[in-house]
Amino acid sequence: MGGKWRRELPLHFMILPGLLFIAIFSYVPMAGIVIAFQKFIPAKGLFGDQKWVGWDNFNYVMDLPSFSQVFWNTLSIASMKLVLGLIVPIIFAILLNELKNEMVKRSIQTAIYLPYFLSWVVLGGILIDLLSPSGGIVNGLLTSLGLEPVFFLGDNNWFPATLVGSDIWKNFGYGTIVYLAAITGIDPGLYEAATIDGANRWKKAWHITLPGMRMVIVLLSVLSLGQLLNAGFDQVFNLYSPQVYESGDILDTFVYRIGLLDAQYGVATAVGFFKSIVSFVLIAGSYFFAYRFARYRIF
Amino acid sequence: MLQEAPDFYNESTDIACGIVSILIEGGEGMRGSGKKSFAMIMVLLIAAGMVLAACSNNNEGGNKGNGNTNVPVKQEATEGNDGANADSGASEDPLGKYDPPIEVTTVRNLSDVVENNVLGVLEGETFEDNRWTRVYEEQLGIKIRNEWVVKGNPDSDQYVQKMNVTLASGELPDFLSVNAVQLKQLTESDLIEDMTELYEKYASPLTKDILSQEGTGPFDAATFDGKLMAIPQVEPSIERSMFVWIRTDWLNKLGLQPPKTMADVLAISKAFTEDDPDGDGKPDTFGLGVTKDLWGGANGLEGFMAGYKAYPNLWVEDASGKLVFGSIQPEVKQALQALQDMFKNGQIDKEFGIKDGGKVAEDITAGKIGMEYGEQWNSIWPLQLNKNNEPDAQWQAFPIVSESGELPKVPQKFSTTKFFVVRKGAEHPEAVIKLFNLHLEKNWGETAEFDVYYAPKEAESVWQLSPVQPAPPKKNVTAYREIDAARKAGDFQALKGEAKTIQEKIDLYNSGSEEGFAVWGWERIYGPEGSMGITDQYDKNNQFLIDKFVAAPTPTMVERKSTLEKLQDETFVKIILGDPIDSFDKFVEDWKKLGGDQMTQEVNEWYASTK
């Protein structure tokens, strides 16, 4: 017993910074939930003499005509990002793995990884220029092909797709590299054996590469379920405008506007609290299903 | 599968490999695999330790950096103040000098105009060190330090956010300008000084006279329980009058007349869009300039709506003598319908929903827009930009028109929106009043140097460098009347101060020189067919419709006003973009339910109490 404890001691140390981080940034701020039930005046402080208003803030939020819209936007944008963010890198990793020329493979890998390092503030500016219906390069291409220009960032039909598309474009390089790493770990003997048995490339990808990545795929998808209500504040904030609130406003940007711009701290906290509760239910549920269907557990 | 730890051959996947290998080993290999993995853990631990150390170093560095800019300076400020406190009695004179000098802190925004048109052309002056900060230091012994500066206008998201964070933190600078809602919140939180006696004692006679010219409204709005909690930077409602600015070179080219009715306005808009007024053979022009914010002093819709007897954002009296909110009246629906039709027909930029004033100004500069509703100064900005770009372009302000052709009411919002508050416990709470005194004195007092401190030719907006910018509310109309009288008498000798400076600009323009070209905008305001002449007309015809609510915001306004405004603006934008016009009815319902009814009741209670 004592031997095991000592052996695992370094592991416990390793987890300490993470635990501290969560305690400071996730647990301590929970005290602020009380704000959701107050008519909060910041100057009086968190524990000051605030006026308690019961569920008023929540009722007010439910009355806001945009709230249900915002909620569904969040859910639909986030789940589209989740699904595509899973599939695209897997396909790309398998395709890249099939490339024999190392130079080409490395160059592509680096090229698709690059946007991951740019912040949305920078990318937002670039995208607004690229996608502009008057003079943007993308629409220039569309019109030269004889198509109607599309107002990607101003048209409610296109905006969610633009969000999802640009998010995948920015992030799939990272996912691809993680999956490539998983592929590197597959025993080459399996491929040799399959070749001897007469399997072609398709068969090998399907029967060896994909199953070989299974654990990492399940792990990453379960982990990403935690993001189900995080549709990406940075991105939306840098790309949206009142014109596309209808299709692109998400809970986080909504909280930002109510809280930091309108200074209605109680209401903003109520929305944030609501989001946390829904997230909790969704994550608990998806974790349960991950176990039911994939027999996978993190804990 | 995956029984072995992955190889580390592929360099570019090292990091990810590391992650994956930990995951895999953690799951399967860790428990029994002896010395090798223990060594690896130690390596990882050390590596993690280094990363963490690097992180914490960074943090410290960051904190130190912050400390250097904030905390120590604050201490210095306090020390300086302590020193000054000892003999501050010497400075009781409204324009007296502190010796030794004191330092006061504030927060600012740096607008486009100041950054480009003022600091961009003035050599040796910066936002922190310029003719205004120098004159305050030399004559009053007041050094002004900005705790933070945000680029953009005071209504930009960035500024509002920074301001809200500053107010929420409770760590205010010595003085700052806030809006009516923030003023009320600060008063309730007991964070600001009572200015009642200080104003009596330190405001110069000139300051008192000028700030009272707009009636008691501005001061009523800053008074809570009989205490004056802020110095209002009194703004004239009369300056908020709307005109319709039209490109007359396009009008002439298409053989059109200036508008007499709203039907004319719509016809001009249609012609400017469809009849290729710029003659390049492309359908690339718009009839009406509109911004995503809908309202405002340039490219605003207040004047357009007033043509339909719709007065959004204003509290107006209904037939029964009760106050009602203009934005929810059925006339607004009609005006929105007209705008929607214009949008559908391509007369409004289909991208207007994402264009702010600056972007629309770019379109005007590029000669894409031929008509816009705005205030008297529009010819200086943004129209001068178009003139610079297309020397043959000509703009003129016309009175706004109504549907029937009868004289329309010209809406005037209660426009005092800046209130200067002083942090409770500030060492020199009177300093801001002295700044007010000197600003007015240097521009309109006996020692005024108007063309140095207000509007020198090379940089028209120099006055905006000052953190406080009070001005006589009627100054522009007064100047116009003086100039107009002189013009009629044919004798400009008697003009002085602001009127003289302006007349010099008109003369310069009339001289036809290149320098004169740059002050074209002034001629368009004060010249014979200038916008101020129309203000004068409005005034004489008694056309002004003044906002009836002029008090501190009611409790519901403090909480809900900005949310309701956003709901309104979003709904209106969407309707113009093509949402069914009946969503206006839904908006009215929502507005009432979300606090509007309560606001109306509170406003009427106040109104009854003033009668």
Give the neighbour order of strands across the main sheet of chain B. 3-13-6
Query: What is the CATH architecture annotation of the largest domain in chain B?
Result: 3-Layer(aba) Sandwich
Output the CATH homologous superfamily of chain A.
MetI-like
Run of helices and strands of chain A: HEEHHHHHHHHHHHH
N-to-C terminal Cα separation of chain B, in Å?
A: 86 Å
Specify the overall morphology of chain B: globular
Oligomer: heterodimer
The mean pLDDT of chain A is: 88
Strand content of chain B: 5-15%
Named CATH topology of chain A: MetI-like fold
CATH architecture of chain A: Orthogonal Bundle
Strand content of chain A: under 5%
**Text of the CATH class of chain A:** Mainly Alpha
Q: Helicity of chain A, in percent?
A: over 70%
- In terms of structural class, how would the helical and strand content of chain A be classed? mainly alpha
Total discrete domains of chain A: 1
- Biggest sheet strand order of chain A reads 1-2
Task: Write down the domain tally of chain B.
Answer: 3
Strand tally of chain A, please? 2
Sum this structure up briefly.
With 299 residues, chain A is mainly alpha-helical.
How would you describe this structure to a colleague?
Chain A: It is a multi-pass membrane protein. Chain A: InterPro entries: MetI-like, MetI-like_sf, UgpAE/MalFG_permease. The complex is a heterodimer of chains A (299) and B (611). Helix content of chain A is 70%, strand content 1%. Chain A is mainly alpha-helical. Chain A has a single domain (56-294), classed as MetI-like (MetI-like fold, Orthogonal Bundle). In chain A, helix 2 (56-63) crosses helix 13, helix 3 packs parallel to helix 7 and helix 5 packs parallel to helix 10. By secondary structure, chain B is mostly helical. Helices cover 49% and strands 10% of the residues of chain B. Chain B is built from 25 helices and 14 strands. The longest helix of chain B is centred in the N-terminal third of the chain and has 36 residues, at 34-69. The N and C termini of chain B lie far apart (86 Å). In chain B, 42% of the residues are buried. At the A-B interface, helix 1, helix 4, helix 7, helix 9 and helix 12 of A face helix 1, helix 2, helix 6, helix 7 and helix 24 of B.
